[in-house]
Amino acid sequence: MAPSDQGSAGSDRILSYLLKYPLTVIDGDELMVVSGIGEWARRVRELRVQEGWWIFTGVTFREMKEDDEEISLKSAEVDVSGIHPDQYVLMRTTRDVEAADNWAVMNQIRKQDTGVKEKVLAYLRYKVGKPVTGEALRYLANDATEWARRSRELRTEDGWPVVTRMGGREDLPVGVYLLEEDKQAEPHDRHIPDAVRVKVLTRDNFQCTHEGCGWSRDKLSKGDPRKYLELHHKNFHVNKGENTAENLITLCNVHHDELHRAHSAGLKGKT
Predict the structure, then answer these.
(1) Count: domains in the chain
(2) pLDDT reported for residue 234
């Protein structure tokens, strides 16, 4: 058998094995034995990056944890809190059908002469509204360990609606990021710590608190302009309102925009 054929067969064996044990921590040594080839690690990477299979590595989970010690690597589906760098998990049993297009775009962004944060943001904006794995962001960063910190900063410092499981989107798997809208928050709504954000969302039952609304993500529907939840300062940030749970409420994006338009109109009326 030619080397290329051996590699292809090895990839097939790795994938078959992972599909047999999804959401299960698998040792790299197991995949080496199953594949029967020496370049098994490269084949795993190809399955993940080029073919769109959500194969997460212990390295990625570890870097997420090192960036944010409060992050939980446990969910009802899988517990990867004790995963080692040389272990792997297949997070879902269907591949990303856009893998070929994603691969081309990722490589274009990866080669850009920009910082890690700019590369991460560029890809999240390309995939707006769609989940992106930490593995993809790590690849974009050329394996620089700062990718997790930069991804968090986009939300907590720069005001991009990048959500994660720990950031209040419990419907997302561990290790997945999603840019809800290609829109940067106003300066007054940035710098809210994740712990405060989750506390407010939980207190408000992940629903818009505007009178008569009560929108939540399970009511998401085509044609409805309400797409996601945001936090609103009762005492506006411009008036020295603090980023505390007591001063924040949950609103859908529509009512949040309405309140800020009304506030801006009121300020103009006083001039």
Answers:
(1) 2
(2) 86
Q: How far is CA 38 from CA 6, 28, 33, 153, in A?
A: 10, 12, 9, 39
168 in the same domain as 84: yes
Q: What is the pTM of this model?
A: 0.79
**Residues 212 and 79 reside in one and the same domain:** no
Residues with Cβ within 8 Å of residue 151, at least 6 apart in sequence: 120, 134, 137, 162, 177
Q: Which domain holds residue 215?
A: 188-269
Nearest to 120 by CA among 141, 144, 99: 141
42 plus 118 within the same structural domain: yes
> Which residues of the chain, if any, have pLDDT below 50?
1-2, 268-269, 271
Verify that 15 and 60 share a domain, yes or no: yes
Q: 41: number of CA atoms within 13 Å, CB side?
A: 7
Reduced to 3 states (helix: H, G, I; strand: E, B; else coil), residue 147 is helix
Domain stops at, among 152, 179, 206: 179
Instruction: Mark whether 209 and 243 lie in a shared domain.
Output: yes
Strands lying side by side in the sheet with 132-133: 132-133, 176-179, 162-163
DSSP H or E run through 101: helix 99-110
Residue 65 and residue 157 in one domain: yes
Check if the beta carbon of residue 14 is closer than 8 Å to that of residue 44: yes
Output the pLDDT for position 64: 87
Task: Write down the pLDDT at residue 121.
Answer: 97
Nearest-angstrom CA–CA distance, 128 and 9 = 35
* H or E element at residue 90: strand 87-90
Residues 170 and 265 in one domain: no
